[in-house]
Amino acid sequence: MQESGIGGPESGLGGGLGPADEQLVRIESARVAHAAGVALVVTVAGEIDLLTIDRLRAAVAAGFEDLRDGEMLVIDLTPVTFMDSRGLQALVDATQAAQRQREPLRIVVDHTRPVIRPIQVTGLDAVLALYDTVEDAVHALP
Known about the structure:
This protein has about 140 residues and is an alpha/beta fold. It has one domain (about 25-140): STAS domain (Transcription Regulator spoIIAA). About 35% of the residues lie in helices and about 30% in strands. It is built from 5 helices and 7 strands, in the order βαββαββαβαβα. Strands 1, 2, 3, 4, 5, 6 and 7 form a 7-stranded mixed beta sheet that branches. A hairpin with a 2-residue loop joins strand 2 (about 25-35) and strand 3. Helix 2 (about 55-65) runs parallel beside helix 3 (about 85-100). The two termini are about 20 Å apart.
């Protein structure tokens, strides 16, 4: 079961960015049912850099705000083609915010994408809750 949510074209995420910015990064969300409940999955596709980082941060913040009782937030980065240090910092910030709010946050990055290498090189793979697939993330025990 999937239910569209934040991040669609009608949501206004990203502060009114124009079509050029939308071509660089696309952000969508959906609720996904699983055995233990429901997860809000925010899927990010494209490039995460200076031009698009505010859209990522806004989508993650909106994801936390839209969580219902018992839901977890999953950020799916498998369609991301590029991520700079700003993107890495946004992931660390999101993880810290989740810990402060005691909300589960899981990040999906498969091992063939350009996102996993910067995460590994910086040692963030020891800090972030990383999973290979959305299915793995939503079915993992807390």
